[in-house]
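Format notes (please read before filing issues)

Several people have asked whether sequences and structure tokens are stored in separate files. They are not. Every record keeps both together, in the order shown below: the sequence lines, then the token lines. Line labels are part of the format and must not be stripped during preprocessing.
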Amino acid sequence: MRGDVASNAMSARMILGEYLNEHIGERLIVTKINAGMSASNMRPNRALTQHYEKDSKTLWIARSHLKAWIEKRHHSFNDIKKELFADGVLLNPDDKKTLGAGTDLSGGAKMQIRCWKLKVDDEMDKSLQQEV
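Then the structure lines:
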């Protein structure tokens, strides 16, 4: 029975992918234009929880939102954090970011929130840029 449970376990990357797919409408994708940041063709249609910079292939996810989602699904937030950090995907689990920075979505507020800063590979880059 333990073997069955172990074989059904999801990797941290799979769990992260599930989160990103479920919350695709909460992602802001920006790119550098004329030394400034500009929203690309994809803007969030719900509350902003993710900020993806295409040029640097860096993704920030609101930590509290991600943690609540992970725990609601009965996964271990700390185990996922450790696995992604060991894989080199998670660069900083305690970074601060203004998710709407450089766009009209910042609302003039300079409020930084705690985020996971992630390094995006080519495969993840393709899925992050999919339309809702």
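For reference, the curators noted about this record: Residues 2-128 form one domain. Residues 1-7 have pLDDT under 50 and may be disordered.
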